[in-house]
Structures are given as C-alpha cells and as structure tokens.
Amino acid sequence: MNTLLFSMPGGGEIIILLFVVLLLFGGRKIPELARGLGRGIREFNDAKSSIQRELEEGVEDKKK
C-alpha cells in the first residue's frame, strides 16, 4: 500500500503536472527555469567528477 503513495507518476499525471507548471509560471518563465535546472545539474555533475577524480588519485597515491 505504501508503494502506491511513492510510485513514479504515469503519463496522465505528468501531463497534469506540466499544465499546472505552465499555469503557475507562465510560458515566459519556463525556459528560464529549465536553464537554471540545467546549470544546477551541470554543476552537480562537475562536482561529482571532481570528487571521484580526487578519490581515484588518493587510491593511486596510497598504492605507491
């Protein structure tokens, strides 16, 4: 029963969510929000890659 509360939205729910977002923010704000989201994802991936690189370098240094 609990899994139904936290399951991923289906096609109909996604359409309703997109419609609500369009109503709340308007057509002009959506591209700006998408750019901000894209920048945030890019920064997260850059930080993740940096940490992974540092960990791999630490393991290589420890092997020597």
Structural class: mainly alpha
Strand fraction = under 5%
Counted beta strands: 0
User: Overall mean pLDDT score?
Assistant: 85
Quick structural summary:
The protein is mainly α and 64 residues long.
Could you name the key traits of this structure?
single chain, 64 residues, mainly alpha, 2 helices
Give your account of this protein's structure.
There is one protein chain. With 64 residues, the chain is mainly α. The chain has one domain (2-63). Helices cover 89% and strands 0% of the residues. The longest helix is centred in the middle third of the chain and has 53 residues, at 11-63.
Provide the fold topology:
Layout: H1 2-5, H2 11-63
